[in-house]
Amino acid sequence: LGFTADEEHGGMGIRSLLESEWVRAIEAGVFCEPTNERIGIAEKGALWMAASFTGVQAHGSNPDIAVNALDAAIDFYRAFVQGFDSTQYDPWLGHASVSLTQLHGGFMTNVIPGEAFLELDIRLLPGQTTEYCINLAQKVAERLQSNEPRLQVDVKVMIKCDANATPEDDDFVVLAQQVSESLGADPTLRGLRYRTDAGRLVPVLGIPFVIWGPGDDNEAHQIDEKIEIASICRMAERYLLLARKFGA
To answer: Which CATH number goes with the domain that contains 81?
Structure first.
């Protein structure tokens, strides 16, 4: 049983656990995340990237001598989305996605910004690697700088984690379904669009896993995010029975 901190950012907790000898003895994993009490067997990968743009600031009346960093940031985002393969489809996870989550630039109406900054949240499917996205971002940055030598673009990787999945016919998944059904719960499997610490642990250990827990994942990061006590109690019962049957 492990409690990990920093799951949404650097993953310091799970990385610390991976340095422990006892982790190597783990044969299967249950990651407690909000899944509406349904058994999750797949999660999207995640890549968070930041890009900074340095151009040439100028008065708004004199755009000819400026290099608008905010324009460059928008061009970067559009070119990245155009080059990104969002056509692939996974039956558990749907489509991959690119979301522009931060965009900053400028400080006065009559000043053409010489600096801008953006962040992207990219969600990937099995078979799509974070390295593919990083290379695409670098190529877009190089193309923008080639077109405008006075522009500087710096791309930084904040978080990278490839997608993970356990086959639906894996013995551990089947056992979780049997436990769920025996307690009168829905044994239907599902995929999760978010990422968990499974993305850092499972590739290292090569173990089967499920993502299974109380709470509604559609409420994540909402002002009314909550988990019902009754749901926690139901899931605790399932965890206990799963542990007993797995160790039998």
So the answer is: 3.30.70.360
Residue 42: closest CA among 94, 105, 7, 93: 93
Summarised one tens digit per residue, pLDDT across range 70-84 is: 999 999 999 999 999
∠ CA 180-209-225, nearest 5°, is 70
Indicate the angle between helix axes 130-147 and 69-83, nearest 10 degrees: 140
Domain count for the chain, please give it: 2
pTM for the structure as a whole = 0.87
CA distance linking residue 80 with residue 129, whole number of Å:
15
pLDDT tens, residue by residue, 142-183: 999 999 999 999 999 999 988 999 999 999 999 999 999 999
Q: Which of 75, 49, 71 is nearest to 132 (CA)?
A: 49
